[in-house]
Amino acid sequence: MRILDLYCGAGGSAMGYVMAGFQVVGVDKKAQQNWPWPHNFVKVDAMRALELLDLRVYDAIHASPPCQTHSRTRYLQEDRPGDPDEIENLRIMLQAIGKPYVIENVVGAPLEHPVTLCGSMFPETMGIRRHRIFECPWLEQPAPECRHHLQVPRFRNPDPRGAELTGVVNVHGSPSYEGEAQLRREVMGIDWMNNYELTQAVPPAYTMWLGGQLADYLARRAA
Question: Which residue segments constitute the domains of the chain, with CATH numbers given?
Fold first, then answer.
């Protein structure tokens, strides 16, 4: 199974699909030095890629268009001041292509009937919350339920105004104490990214779950 990963960044989503059994080709308009599979990367604008690449060789398409427009924190929005809100045009193109697709973004983005995934749903990411939404019209299985009550205080709280311990690690901004950078990698399930890439990434556990559902869907459709 092959999936095209648009706006791939450093490969958080891609790694989850690989873990679910997919071969992934990443597309991003910026060079990605830490992309884990350098021979499966194309440096080109994502919308342009949909016109240039031979899409017949892919079983599905994943896209994570820029989210700063919809982010509640607007974290690091100044780093990408020229990024347009591409979701609507992207959806039109993906629907016209006719492949199963996934559009990922932050809570508040204008996705259609999205499912929400949270770190508390998966044992691998129990140390984060990091809600992300996914538009996937082919999905039939409901998402697991959030289990915030299991995220008991056990991590050092970098905010001196709060309690000494907190139940989740917040992966945004710069690390504020020694050892926090490594802790962020551990709770995200990502050990190959720098801190900025990590703050932008989707935890692989999310797309591993989605990838499993997608593989089942493709198998049913091929039967």
Answer: 2-222 (3.40.50)
